[in-house]
């Protein structure tokens, strides 16, 4: 048996590929949420995805460490089923940087990974040209299609074009018949269809075995190690909590424990199991089995929300630096530290400068027709914590903008990188074979 923690994006794909690629394999998937996330329309519909962040029965509801300059704490979200719409795959350079870490990392270059993405995809674009076909697949399980652009968004795109911002027509969505087609829908559902028959005491001499067993509402406590092996750390199972009781699940002799619990929970499980920074483990009386920089290299996208004003109201007045950040979105790199480490951290001034410049660009976009004419959008404005109008931004100095960025910024719910793939000498937690 292979044991997997979480049926997120990676877990769903792994379950399906393993079950179809390896004969006579059984997989136990331990999932913290419930079995029917898509029964809630707030999760699957594109227009209600943001409201799903308050559904803590389907979301971890984590919050960041409250900062002196921040006016509030912000939830960190990790949910692959929420219909947030975009389908980004990253830049070729990011994959080629992985490959440049050594000859064994060559399998992670852009050319190899692009073929893997194409193998996952069933793109629904009508009459794709030859260039488009080079970057997309058309015969797999994951439905991807172009977004239906409404008038106000068309106006926004036209204004950006007129300001010299390059147009990109290949920004796709995860929707199928206007509902999100998550990897749970296509890959995990397909994996659950596989049934095996083993010798048994049934009337026909065989017993029916479901190849993938999903246990919902479970919480993994730690990895179980082979204590008889004194030379290396060998995982033989996991200990988890379910229905008020602690359970243990063990793998077959050639099985594996696969941790795919996201950028927050994967480090948590590893550190509870004795894998991580030595000082953090010892401070919590956890036996150190392997010292690795688990939780470091945390990457996220900053988000700074501002309001657009329309007269009369013709749209829901939302605008933000992150809207323009879709054109240029910055990464924030850090770590998941113990509290004392916060006092040693310095802000990245370049990141602050990027956010300020994007907010100023947002103001210029709002001032242009048809946004300023057809939709009567007047300006980007700034609200206080009670929603009261403060200023339209005309009288703000760069120092004022910087202060506002510190006070109003939050995370964009995109944590990643906390189990970095790289040689140990370069801060890696896992190698090229993960």
From TrEMBL:
One protein family per Pfam: GMC_oxred_C
PANTHER family: CHOLINE DEHYDROGENASE, MITOCHONDRIAL, GLUCOSE-METHANOL-CHOLINE GMC OXIDOREDUCTASE
Keywords: FAD, Flavoprotein, Oxidoreductase
Keyword Oxidoreductase attached: yes
GO molecular function annotation: flavin adenine dinucleotide binding; oxidoreductase activity, acting on CH-OH group of donors
Domain called Glucose-methanol-choline oxidoreductase N-terminal: residue spans: 262-276
Name this polypeptide is given: GMC oxidoreductase
Similarity comment text for this entry: Belongs to the GMC oxidoreductase family.
Lineage of the organism: Eukaryota, Fungi, Fungi incertae sedis, Mucoromycota, Glomeromycotina
Gene3D superfamilies registered for this protein in UniProt: FAD/NAD(P)-binding domain, Glucose Oxidase, domain 2, Glucose Oxidase, domain 3
Residues at which FAD binds: 220
Organism: Gigaspora rosea
Cofactors required: FAD
